[in-house]
Every structure is written in C-alpha cells, then in structure tokens.
Amino acid sequence: xQNLNTFILAIESSCDDTSxxxxxxxxxxxxxxANQKIHEQYGGVVPELASRDHQKNILPVVDAAxxxxxxxxxxxxxxxxxxGPGLMGSLLVGLxxxxxxxxxxxxxxxxxxxxxxxxxxxxxxxKDQAIPxxxxxxxxxSGGHTQLVKVSDYLKFELMGQTLDDAVGEAFDKAAKIxxxxxxxxxxxxxxxxxxxxxxxxxxxxxxxxxxxxFSGIKTSFLYFIQKEQNVNPNxxxxxxxxxxxxxxxxxxxxxxxxxxxLLKDTGIKNLTIAGGVSANSELRKQIKVLEKEININTFIPxxxxxxxxxxxxxxxxxxxxQNKQFSSLNITPFTS
Length: 337
Ligand code: KG4
Ligand code: ZN
What we know:
single chain, 337 residues, alpha/beta, Nucleotidyltransferase, domain 5, 2 domains, 42% helix, globular, binds zinc ion
C-alpha cells in the first residue's frame, strides 16, 4: 500500500561529500551537497580529513536542505542514511547525526546501501527522464566499485559481476595523479579527452572471465607508458595531454562496454542503465547510446546531478523501503565494504 504523502530527510556521508536531501514521495525538494576541496592536493581522499570536514559540514548542510525544501522538521516521516559501504569515520558522522535526528523527532531510521542507492537514483521523479523497466542490468561505476547488477524489481538486486581489484573510478583518478592532475581526476580526463584522439595510444586488455573486471594492471601499464615516454621527452604529458586522456578513457570505457554487452547477450535482458560517479563520463554516455542501436536495447541514463554522490539517491531508496516498513534499529553500525 503506497503512502502518498511521505517526507523523507536523507543523509549521505560515505566518502568526501556531505549531502542532505528532502524528498516528498519520489520527488526531490532539496539536495544540498558540500564538496571537500582539501583532498585535491593529496591525489585522493584522506579519510581522517574527510571525517573532520563531515563533522564541520553536516549541520549547515542539513539546515540548508530543510530551508530549501521549505518544510518544518515536524513534517518529516523518516530519516534515511547511508550505512555503507564507505569510509568508517565518514559514515559514523552521518549515521550518528541521523540517529540523533530520528530519536529527537521520534520517527523511523532507514539505513541505505550506498551502491543500491546509486541504482535507485533512476527512480527519482523527473519530467524529462524515462524510468527503467524491470528487469534491467545496471552498470554501476564509481570511485570504489565497478559492478554489473541485475535488477528485477525495486530493491531486488543480484550481483552478476564486479571488479577483482581496483574500481574504474580509481583507474581514472590514479592515471590523473600520474599526470599531475588534482583529485578527482575522472572529470578532468573527460574534459581533456574531448579535444583528443582516442586512437593515438593503445593499452592492453586484461583477460578476465565472464562479467568481472580488473583495472589494476591497466593503471600500472599506464604508469610505465608515461615513464617511458617522459624519459625521451620530459614534456610528453603537457604536450600530449588531450590525446593521452582520450586514448586512456576510450580504453577504459571499451572494457566496460564489452562486459556489459556480453552480460546482456547471455541474459537476454533488453534494458540497460548506468549509475555511479563514472556514469557522468561523456564517452560512457555516448557508447551506451551506440550500444543501444547496435544490439537493439533500451538504455536509461541518469540525470547528471544524481550520478556522483548525493543524498537524493539515499532518499529515493528509503522511500521504497518506507512503503515496506523496512526500518532500522538505532543500534546499527556502519559497514565499510
Ligand atoms: O559515485 P562517486 O561520486 O563516489 C563513490 O561512491 O566513489 O564516484 C566518484 C568517482 C571518482 O573516481 C571520479 O573521478 C569519477 O567518479 N568521475 C568521473 C567523472 N565524474 C566523476 N570519471 C570519469 N568521467 C567523469 N566525467
Ligand atoms: Zn558513490
């Protein structure tokens, strides 16, 4: 039975973004995110600094989200929060804040799995966006995960394949670091790649069975490639940035597309979605559309705002859990992987 008047306040703090959203049913009233710039200089997220910044940001972010939604706290029916996977110190800040709110407002707490939430972001109401039909395959690609998931209903997920080592987002970020670019490097590689030639440099494929992935070898071969070229020309990266980014990006996306295509073929499933931070990548978005025509499937690409970490995706997942009264105890602790 659907409750058609549900207000949910959602909190996400699993990595380096502190985010709070307020949803009315499946509609986002506000989604406020504080990004942490401090990690740029380190080439990756420093967990201790991330949790300290969450602690500073969480109250102003929640306050801003409630104000923007133009509701009072007494109207909220449940508090949703990311329980994991993520960084322990970061998760603890969001989870403890959410528990306190749930306790003080005397409303249920709903724990949400971050990776499932990335997929559920497709169900956020948007007039310009078609909602995927079941069953569908979701290629979930983020800074910490690379997964192929079969989704047969709301909240019904089956993991079909995943990375055996690094995530594809890490392959982007670490390559960027090797080239001296700040963290997160994915969006920057995407930007430079737009002006570059994707066929200029070639990278070797890792031979991994079925629907699994491996990105650690690609990252190492990228390091050796850059070192070798820099021995000949110390300005190699600066002079060839666009072509390096385009070729490397093309290679990573090609690996993702090949595995996704294989899974679609083997399962006969005709609907495909992408989710997670790397689903913001323009080459991936382009190649998904090419695949749509090539093998005659339906593809669903998430709104740009809901690709990288955000609390709206936590809220929409909690909305479906709320319908089934899937509430959490105040004793829950975070899980990291
Ligand atoms: O989902 P997300 O925001 O956080 C995690 O749950 O990890 O994903 C972050 C990842 C980072 O590795 C970032 O470099 C990557 O998503 N990313 C991109 C792009 N935008 C974000 N990678 C490639 N191209 C992009 N446009
Ligand atoms: Zn994420």
